[in-house]
Amino acid sequence: MTDLLEAMRAYPDLLQTCGVIGSMMYVGGFALVQTGRICGNGPYYSCNQLTAATLVLTSLVGAFNLGAFLIQVGFLIFGSIGLVRRLRMRRQGRYPSGTGVIRILTDEQTAPDFRDASPETCDWEMNPRVPGYDRPVRPYLGAAAPAP
């Protein structure tokens, strides 16, 4: 194992390139989720995160950092758990079919109505809501109110 690590350390430019590609994949995956191109609960996002974590973890062979190492190991563990869970749900038929890549509509297609919190977008919508969750909340203005 030590020989493998020494062989990897002989190519610091390759290790740095792995780290840069991994960080670009992290940011790119987050950008795709935030712009609505992919669903954050889909297998594509999980695979992207696992690949990015593996690349960044590989880059740590050249310049070890304990904090970064622990973060990447956490991403690998929890990303693997989530991916296995999603694939198991899909195999059992309990996974929403619309989760994954979100397709761009053409002019003749109509956009789906998501105001009803359609369960086709994310798997957390399949869980029942907590009673009282939808009750209106009054703002607390005690500190902002003028003194009498």
Structural description of this entry:
The structure is a single chain. This protein is mostly helical and 148 residues long. The chain has a domain at 2-103. Helix content is 51%, strand content 0%. The protein has four helices and no strands. It has helices at 2-9, 12-34, 43-59, 66-92. Helix 2 (12-34) runs antiparallel to helix 3 and helix 3 packs antiparallel against helix 4. It is elongated, with a radius of gyration of 22 Å. The model is unreliable at 114-121 (pLDDT under 50).
Sequence-ordered SSE layout with sheet pairings:
Elements: H1 2-9, H2 12-34, H3 43-59, H4 66-92
Helix pairs in contact: 2-3, 3-4
